[in-house]
Amino acid sequence: MKTIVLAEKPSVGRELARVLGCTRKLNGYFEGKNYIVTWALGHLVTLADPKDYDAAWARWDLNYLPMIPQKMKMTIIRQTSKQFTVVKKLLTREDAGLLIIATDAGREGELVARWIMEKSRWRKPFKRLWISSQTDAAIKEGFANLKPGHQYDRLFHSAVSRSEADWLIGLNVSRAMTCKFDAQLNAGRVQTPTLSMIVKREEEIEAFIPREFYTIRAEFKEFIGVWQDAGGNSRLFDKAKAEVLVNKLQGGDGTVNMVETTNHTQQPPLAYDLTELQREANRRYNLSAKQTLQTVQRLYEQHKIVTYPRTDSRYITTDMVPTLPARVVHLIAEPYKRVSSALLKNGLKPTKRFVNNARVTDHHALLPTEQPARLSLLSTDERNIYDLIVRRFLAVLSEPCKTQKTKVTVLIKGEKFTASGKRTLHAGWKAIERPASDDDAGMQVLPSIKKGDRCGVKRIYLHRGTTAPPARYTEATLLTAMESPGKFIEDEELRESIKSGGLGTPATRADIIEKLFRAFYIERNGKSLSPTSQGRELIRLVPPMLKSPELTASWEKRLSNIASGAEKPGDFIEEIKRETTRLVNMIKGSTEKFNITNLTKEKCPLCGSPMFYVNKKNGRKLVCSDRHCRYESTGESREGLSIKRKSKRDYHAEKRLVAQYGKSRKKAEETLGDLFDL
């Protein structure tokens, strides 16, 4: 009998086949003496579209909402149906006796495999491969320690519940919003609160009223002190009062009133999880979350030099400690030779801060593997991301950074001036990984000084400043907010439950941000993210509960309960159905209107509707405001925005298609594909 191995992607399937000795390559799979290795292409099976339940649901009409199927159906994804056919034939072979699920080790990976099994009617035994690295050694060890397949049944039920709930809420609310307000408005439990945070920040910036303030500074011979009042405040908002104080202090000498020296120990940072890596890559290299995920995925699958990237843990388990020396040994090459050699010479001493079984869920922290890297084969982005991971790994195993901070108080005519300084006693881990931002950056180096010393004053002057509004989100800071959105949640229990999850997962946050861009709800201004007019309108019109992370927090808590067996999936879905009906009725009863403020004078070449603009990374894009058309065009001229016209023949052909299909651009695409590049 043959054992079928089902991977999630072709690249992983090829590697598994090589390790298992499956040398015969066929259409969509590899076959060997004992194993047949095949793969999905991500999801091959998904929940059915509304039209597959009821022909009336094919129409976008408020009268047919909400759509609540009695039982959810699955369907084969058309674009990948060929590979599904291959997998199904393998699973129905008479000599197939055992199935090994080798999809990604997590909730969604479980769903990918189980739905394929259900649709193929697999009823024979199955086991689970659960590994966090794609090296040959990790694969062999994983196959030597296969898990019982049914051990992950509850994880699968949790994944199904998440998928069905997203279908019910997402499709119904999006369709209701779109039909009610005659605009392309998509809403969801993760995407919408993420957008809401960006909109709220923009409103805070617009409402902010800057205030001018002044600080009084004393320039001594070797350092600068800043005036403080009795309460420790240094800002003065009354210029006249500040000038009076400066005049009073002129000509005075300073006397050191206090010198306070403290030693500080800064422990090494934790290892990377995916979200922290995405933040750092955005800060240092301006890579988007999506770019970072794609890059580290290649390092994992193609180059095999990092462990599983879609992790939410920054720790390792005790059984991994023996593998650390082998990981460091392969880093004894430039530019890591000095550090890695020193670590091995002194002996690795990982602390409980890094080794914590309780803080590892499905996967451990993101680490380099035991396989040496061929740096010359890496692209610039791959090299940068790998460098971040390696330096963080070496830093985690290094000694703490020790510094000495000194605070000095100088009195001038009874007024207090303070100055702070810092010097490094032992760089420790900071000699390996310099933080992208340092809270102590800009601190002075103070001279040797003691209480009672006289300090000559070179000059006393006013320094003008202006209060700053809150900073717009960057992808780095947005990822932080998505990971820890507790401050947006009032309910204490829900706030606690979302601490371990946040909005989305490390694997999905990049896609959520990209969806906001694709839907023209947010735009980039340099590194900063701003909401578009459409994004603001969506948040204004959407039901309040969808704006807050509370919905996701409550879902994640209950999905975790399903995975642990503390709650039944059916109870969760029944409540989601009731909530779906309530939300749809709320939208139906709304008296609000959709308004758009970024319309241009340009007309859509297909339907004649006004076009609106959105800012893109490389200029502006024009998009048709008619939701049935949504024609997109780009281009700029010296006179301003202009549409890049197609040939006259293509233009009139497109108009005929639109007339034929009642402005249905999608139908035109299905009919003629990309012939006219619609």
Structural commentary:
The protein is α+β, with helices and mostly antiparallel strands and 678 residues long. The protein has 5 domains: 2-145, Rossmann fold; 178-206 and 472-588, Topoisomerase I, domain 2 (Orthogonal Bundle); 216-266 and 401-466, Topoisomerase I, domain 3; 274-396, Orthogonal Bundle (Topoisomerase I, domain 4); 599-672, no CATH class. It contains 20 helices and 24 strands. A 7-stranded mixed β-sheet has the order 2-3-4-1-7-8-9, with helices on both faces. β21 (619-624) and β22 form a beta hairpin. α8 packs across α9. The chain is globular and about 95 Å long. The relative contact order is 0.11. Residues 635-651 and 660-678 have low confidence and may be disordered.
What are the SSEs and their pairings?
Blueprint: E1 2-7, H1 10-20, E2 24-26, E3 29-31, E4 35-39, E5 45-47, E6 74-76, H2 81-91, E7 96-102, H3 107-120, E8 126-128, H4 136-144, E9 147-148, H5 153-181, H6 191-207, E10 212-220, E11 224-228, H7 239-249, E12 254-266, H8 274-285, H9 289-301, H10 324-329, H11 337-346, H12 380-396, E13 401-412, E14 415-426, E15 454-455, E16 457-466, H13 475-483, H14 492-497, H15 509-518, E17 522-525, E18 528-531, H16 533-541, H17 550-564, H18 569-588, E19 599-603, E20 610-616, E21 619-624, E22 632-634, E23 636-637, E24 640-641, H19 648-660, H20 665-672
Parallel strand pairs: 1-4, 1-7, 7-8
Antiparallel strand pairs: 2-3, 3-4, 5-6, 8-9, 10-11, 10-16, 11-14, 12-13, 12-15, 13-14, 17-18, 19-20, 20-21, 21-22, 23-24
